[in-house]
Amino acid sequence: MKNIRGLLLIVGASLLGIGVATVVTNPGQAQYEDYATRQLTAYLQQNVCPNTAILDGICSSALRDNQSQIRRFISTNTERQNYLFWSVYQTDLAPGELLPSVIGDTLPAYHFETIGVFSSFHTYKADRL
Predict the structure, then answer these.
(1) Helix or strand or coil: residue 64?
(2) pTM of the complete model
């Protein structure tokens, strides 16, 4: 009986510790915006800028010089659901909102879902709309 009580105490303390750790390390909106800005910039630099041929250098420097605008675009289009131990971020990006309608209407929109837990992020859904 004494061994079972000790074991239950250890298991309970461990679960409490894990619970506290997840609450403390639940990343906030600002951390998500940093993450999403880095991810989007890297994607555009690797997949979009090289396809612009002559404009590749201009594309890369435009991305580098406009990080605050990219972050604001992500922030404006993101909804956070905080579940105390983790957060779910849903981001809808439509390039048409930033570009003239002649160009913007031809580009696809995207929906992303990302979970934030233990100070890190994992994007588990990325749909082209």
Answers:
(1) helix
(2) 0.78
The residue behind tokens 């390390």 is 25
Query: In terms of residue numbers, what domain contains 90?
Result: 27-128
Crossing angle for the helix pair 56-65 and 67-76, to the nearest 10 degrees: 70
Residue 6 lies in a domain: no
- With residue 90 as reference, give the H or E element that holds it: strand 87-93
The length of the chain, given as a count of residues: 129
Cβ neighbors of 109 (< 8 A, separation 6 or more) are 92, 93, 94, 95, 96, 128, 129
Distance between CA atoms of residues 84 and 78, nearest Å: 18
- What does the block give as tokens for 37? 């800005």
Residue 89 pairs in a beta bridge with: 80, 114
Task: Report pLDDT digits (tens) over 59-78.
Answer: 788 888 889 999 999 999 99
Count of domains in the chain? 1
In a domain, 46, yes or no: yes
